[in-house]
Amino acid sequence: MSVDDVDDRGNVIVVNITDTKTYKPKTFTIINGSNSIPAIDVFRKYRKLRPESILHKRLFINYPKQKCTVQAVGINTISKFPEKIARFLCLPNPEEYTGHSFRRSSATLLADSGADLAVVKRHGGWRSNSVVEGYIEDSLNNKIEISRKIINHSATIIQKESTSNSEASTSASSTSVSNQNINLPINDRYGVHFSSLSNCNIYFK
């Protein structure tokens, strides 16, 4: 990547990548997001450190001892960055993090944001849907949403069953009497009719 591939437009930096893994030129943008690291400002600071004596146009140059040199950063050095980041974060098996981790991480973050298959596919330049579907299926937010739907559906079923049982209990209690003494005024003027009685003791006085 050369300095000519980066276009600073003020509130956005447009980066053109001509040599890609999929052999298809890509363009992406850099903006200052809501996190604590202003990406645009970091890039501009890095660009100002570039020595005027550099004859080549390679964008990334070595930065030993807090000073830029004229030597360009090689592809093997860049591919080691994910492993260094993993070691800094004390992640398990840091040696398994390769240059492809950048590509995989961006797709995972995009899927976690709720992007659909077409958006993730276009971002990564994939021709096959199967790879993209894997990122979406493994999306943490997608799994959380699935769990939320399962829990909410289960809660609805439990609530309906509870309501149904409560209504049945209320109906039963309104038509049955247990462990109570009921005094009925039985005489010539009253006719008393009993039905559907069980386990009852009736005394006439």
Automatic annotation (TrEMBL):
Start and end residues of each Tyr recombinase domain: 1-148
Keyword DNA-binding found: yes
Signal peptide: none
GO biological process: chromosome segregation; DNA recombination
The keyword DNA-binding appears for this protein: yes
Alphabetized GO MF terms: DNA binding; site-specific recombinase activity
Keywords tagged on the record: DNA recombination, DNA-binding
Superkingdom of origin organism: Eukaryota
PROSITE patterns, sorted: TYR_RECOMBINASE
Protein name according to UniProt: Tyr recombinase domain-containing protein
Gene from which this protein is expressed: GLEAN_02700
